[in-house]
Specification:
196 residues; mainly beta; 4-stranded antiparallel beta sheet; 8% helix
Length: 196
């Protein structure tokens, strides 16, 4: 891989935090994954090594689903794990759903021992927490709050091993009612011609 300068323009806009909508799908609903290169691959570039190329292919009738997360309560991190010559990353997302209802309780019941893939937006980029070969560890916890106006709901912690820290997804994300182009952030409803 040809390395490049890693610069930062002083004074540039550099927002923190994650968007209030994330996306998830059971891994069993994904029939084909986009690809990502190893740094030592002959065709490797910075883009091909850090970002997925191509799209998620879903089983017939399946899409990614939306999940709301209270802004200021969620984030995505990547931490190295492992020993010399075997190091990988644990990609971790924390989401906060502010209500205790049947939908979030049913999700938590399935996710606790299930395997899902999450796509989370930060700074106009969409990061994947989930891996074709490694299972996500999903730990939803609930809290009713202890006083009027206190924090409550479900905190979802998602951890997944990956060889890439916070891999970016730039393909199309199939959703109910249309597709989200993760390279532009533009949602196109089903049956709409994106060219006009």
């Amino acid at each position: 891989m040809e390395y490049a300068d890693i610069n930062f323009p002083i004074g540039s806009v550099n927002p923190s935090g994650i968007a209030d909508i994330g996306y998830f799908a059971p891994k069993a609903d994904i029939t084909a994954w986009p690809t990502i290169e190893d740094p030592d691959a002959e065709e490797a570039t910075v883009d091909l090594t850090a970002n997925y190329s191509g799209d998620f292919t879903m089983a017939a009738g399946k899409t990614f689903l939306k999940i709301y997360s209270t802004q200021g309560k969620g984030k995505v991190t990547a931490e190295p794990t492992g020993e010399t010559d075997c190091k990988m990353y644990n990609n971790v997302a924390t989401l906060k759903y502010p209500k205790i209802n049947k939908e979030i309780r049913a999700f938590a019941k399935a996710a606790a021992n299930g395997d899902f893939v999450f796509v989370i937006k930060h700074d106009s980029k969409f990061f994947v927490v989930g891996n074709k070969d490694y299972r996500c560890d999903i730990s939803p916890s609930f809290d009713t709050g202890d006083a009027a106006g206190s924090d409550k709901g479900c905190t979802i912690t998602i951890t997944c091993p990956d060889v890439t820290p916070m891999p970016e997804y730039t393909g199309e994300l199939p959703l109910a009612g249309g597709t989200l182009d993760c390279s532009t952030g533009v949602f196109t409803p089903t049956g709409t011609d994106p060219e006009g």
